[in-house]
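# step 3/5: fold
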Amino acid sequence: MATVVTDFDAVSVKNVNAQFKDGGTSGGARSFGCTGSVEGETESIVIEKRCAGMTKKSLAKPQKMNLTYTGHLPVAVLRDVFGLSNTGLKPGVYSYGQSSKGKEFILTGDVVDEFEDVTKLIAFPAVTSSTGLKIQSIENGAEEVAQIELEFTVLPDSAGQFYYEALVPELDDTTVAQQWHTAFSRELVEAVPVP
């Protein structure tokens, strides 16, 4: 490891991208738009060992993550997130209904510490919308366009992981940072065994 970062203060999130999965493989990266905020929380179950009515051991096991994203997203990205389709419709017409199914995607981003000029790469490998289609607030005469708030579920990838992060100065392999937003996968970040 080239450098060890001891302090990191998250100031902003930038360069958020989605790699939508078609048939299990991810496509090229697409900008997730103008990001206002990203927030995540792990949902866990607690396993306890009790003896004579007293808890002797306790263990929290992560089950999934819940993400909240606030921002302005491109139309095509929103259509893929919620599963809007124009199948059987005239060009330019899209619909959403009972058969709509949003696509799974990999969400990546840069969290920036502007005090130390350090970037943390973040990735959520198996993301899906956890709510139905949301229509953002539309207010006549408003001075600011409302951001849309979306809720996502992050499930574990093939390695059982929900979240990956890398502080760029700590990376020995520059390929990881170069491909993080365009071709993120477990294989990209997995250690290669030395014979």
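# step 4/5: annotate
The first helix runs from residue 75 to 82.
# step 5/5: archive (pending)
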